[in-house]
Specification:
- By secondary structure, the protein is an alpha/beta fold.
- It folds into two domains: about 200 residues, Alpha-beta prism (UDP-n-acetylglucosamine1-carboxyvinyl-transferase, Chain), CATH 3.65.10.10; about 210 residues, UDP-n-acetylglucosamine1-carboxyvinyl-transferase, Chain, CATH 3.65.10.
- The protein contains 14 helices and 25 strands.
- Strands 18, 19, 20, 21 and 22 form a five-stranded mixed beta sheet that branches. Strands 23-24-1-25 form a four-stranded mixed beta sheet.
- Helix 8 packs parallel to helix 10.
- The chain is globular, with a radius of gyration of 22 Å.
């Protein structure tokens, strides 16, 4: 099994090009079931993307990859395709459940395995199914599979989500795209990745409007034969390297980003005393040896993202005083804490709140990644730790970070895969 070896205390300097967003690409790939000929650019070639592409091939779509130019071409000419998403292709990736809406709305039926992914909480699909039932689907769960059917097709309706859910919002939009009439979705997630999905669907021929947390989807549309779409940048990857720059960066420049959708993350780092210089499409970040304590709570966008709290925690270990993180999204997202404590971090968990004392000297150790974002937090810890750090189970890391070692090596980090 592969592992990462990091020698810490190296000052970083250089430029990092931020990849396309994994969390935007996955629902767009699911949405490609609804199209004919699609070309996507700025695609991040990480493990979750390959898994979704294997699922689309299984369903019956033709896929052509160009890794050099970061593009994917998808051809969907078959009128009858496989409406099954099997366990073997969904078990490692939660986004696999997003094919449920497109299959159901286009072919009136779908059989999709209950999803897997990181073990950071239960993350049930009840809100997905709630929305699909409102649209007229008959749904049963049997033997680990979701059986969905709408013999007369889905019908537009008004749906108010009881709580905000990114995946459920995406699946509802995808299902409503082919439903008869108008669908109004209330209390929706409004992440930039969802807006990118809406942009893609409108290019496809959709009539979708978003205002606040309200999304209107008009069905009965004509699908365009051919479209091109460029995926937005990965704001979680950008946030990860921002933290790296704040920890050990003489000067790190991040390119290929849109700072207007990245406000909360930047503002939080600035509150901690991190020096950040912005242009429209880039950010320069410099380390600060006197970081200030801060308290945050993870919230749906535009709040602080749960996918960045593990990384911010490393920065908090170097801040003056006691910082706090309240995790409001997932109930089991502090699994990196025991590994950080083995490296010398002073962190206590009480009632979903992490109390982080600093500044604390971290020491290199052999540690184990438990999920995608936890794994990259251990990389950040290794960058500032004395001696060397060995990170095991880095297959989690490969699910969401493209060329991480290469990007860090280009900034003079001493990191290698064993």
């Amino acid at each position: 099994m592969e592992k990462l070896l990091i020698k810490g205390k190296q000052e970083l300097s250089g430029t990092i090009s931020i990849s396309g967003s994994k969390n935007a690409t996955l629902p767009i790939l699911a949405a490609s079931i609804l199209g004919n000929k699609i070309k996507l650019s700025n695609v991040p070639f990480v493990k979750d993307i390959y898994t979704m592409l294997e699922l689309l091939k299984f369903i019956g779509l033709k896929i052509k990859l160009d890794k050099k130019n970061k593009t994917i071409e998808i051809l969907n000419k078959k009128k009858e395709i496989n409406t099954l998403a099997p366990y073997k292709l969904v078990k490692t990736m939660r986004a696999g459940v997003l094919v449920l809406g497109p299959l159901l709305t286009k072919f009136n039926k779908a059989k999709v395995s209950l999803p897997g992914g990181c073990a950071i909480g239960s993350r049930p699909v009840d809100l997905h199914l709630f929305a699909l039932k409102k649209l007229g689907a008959n749904i049963k769960i049997k033997n680990g599979y979701i059986f969905a059917e709408a013999r007369q097709g889905l019908k537009g309706t008004k749906i108010k989500f009881p709580t905000i859910s990114v995946g459920a919002t995406e699946n509802a939009i995808l299902a409503a795209f082919g439903a008869k009439g108008k669908t109004v979705l209330l209390n929706c997630a409004i992440e930039p990745e969802i807006k990118d999905l809406i942009s893609f669907l409108n290019k496809l021929g959709g009539k979708i409007k978003i205002k606040g947390r309200k999304v209107e989807v008009n069905g009965n549309i004509s699908i365009r034969k051919k479209i091109n779409h460029k995926v937005i940048f990965d704001r979680i990857e950008a946030g990860t390297y921002l933290v790296a720059g704040a920890l050990v960066g003489k000067k790190i420049v991040l390119k290929g980003i849109n700072t207007s959708v990245f406000k909360c993350e930047i503002d939080t780092l600035k509150k901690m005393g991190v020096k950040i210089l912005k242009t429209k499409n880039s950010i320069s970040v410099f380390k600060n040896l006197k970081l200030k304590r801060v308290n945050i709570a993870t919230k749906p966008y535009p709040g602080f993202p749960t996918d960045l709290q593990a990384q911010l925690m490393i920065l908090m270990t170097q801040a003056q005083g006691k910082s706090k993180i309240k995790e409001n999204i997932f109930e089991n997202r502090f699994m990196h804490v025991p590994e950080l404590k083995r490296m010398g971090a002073k962190i206590e968990i009480k009632n979903k709140i992490a109390h982080i004392s600093g500044p604390t000297k971290l020491n290199g150790a052999e540690v184990m990644a438990t999920d995608l974002r936890a794994s990259v937090s251990l990389v950040l810890a290794g960058l500032i730790a004395d001696n060397r750090t060995i990170i095991n189970r880095i297959y989690h890391l490969d699910r969401g970070y493209e060329s991480l070692e290469k990007k860090l090596k280009n900034c003079q980090a001493k990191i290698k895969r064993l």
